[in-house]
Amino acid sequence: AEGTGPAVISERVATADGRPVEVAANVGGESELDPAAERGADGIGLFRTEFLFIDREAPPTEAEQYETITAALSAFPEDRVVVRTLDIGGDKPVPYLDLSDEPNPFLGRRGVRLSLDEHADLFETQLRALLRAAATEHGDDLAVMFPLVTRVEEVERAVETVESVAADLADEGVDHAVPDLGAMVETPAAAFVADALADRLDFLSVGTNDLAQYVMAADRGNDAVAEYHDPLHPAVLRALDRTTAAVEETDAWVGMCGEMAGDPALTELLVGLGFDELSMSAVTVPDVKRRIREVDADAAASLAIDALACETRGEVLDVLGLDDREG
Ligand code: PEP
Ligand code: MG
User: Fold this and answer.
1) Which parts of the chain sit beneath pLDDT 50?
2) Ligand 1 contact via 258 beta carbon (within 6 Å)
3) pTM of the predicted model, to two decimals?
4) What is this model's ipTM?
5) Which atom in ligand 1 lies closest to the alpha carbon of residue 147?
6) Known binder of ligand: residue 132?
């Protein structure tokens, strides 16, 4: 009823002409798991693990991380849970890790770079927890993704680390399994080599908050340049298209977990661009599910073609039939 929020759709949805699109939730802490399930999310498309590391004196233990991951799997027993490995640096400082003193932290040591380099120890501990969780009752549905990838070599090294952690666990006689592995596409570099990334992985998930920041050279947290941080700029749309088109040639699937995914006014465009999954804050799940049911996949595809041909944000808004709005 009006004023009480949209009715929840708990089953999976497809477009009016039958193309399934998963609608998952972004979750940033254990307390958000049940609300996400109650909103009808088809699993978790982005489990941000940073909350385990911030506001404390020391990193979480393997046991603590294992408990959290298995709690997420239990909250969604039938659905995929995509856990992102630690994504610190940039706007996400962690005091005890000494990430200070970089002139441009967003262009510095952050995301998977830290996991492969100076914080390989934390990465291995987290992977041990993840691989053990993957062997539990609902662990089949666990997927793991790496943040802020720019180079194919990073993915290769991350996958090698997963394999070596699996070998260690096997030597120790510890139950484990290797989950599906993916990368976030949130840099222009990743979008341009999405084909090579998808060849090596099970899935890609686009983080439009960072992607718009890096494509547009506009700090995502700086109000003074908010209009430049624009996911509807044609350059960002073309980066999305480049990514989905590259994945289409592979066996991988492609999702989006940036803020853009949760805007029902953009759902038709995103379906038209070819996303298999959209992951968003739980509150927007019902609206986006409802919108997907109204969309015709062929019409959406031509809408996307028209949007990709635009030269300005204004033209994109016209194509989408939207008034000008904040980026
Ligand atoms: C993104 O960058 O779009 C994203 C989903 O990751 P985060 O917002 O956590 O950086
Ligand atoms: Mg990001």
Assistant:
1) 1-3, 327
2) yes
3) 0.96
4) 0.99
5) 6
6) no
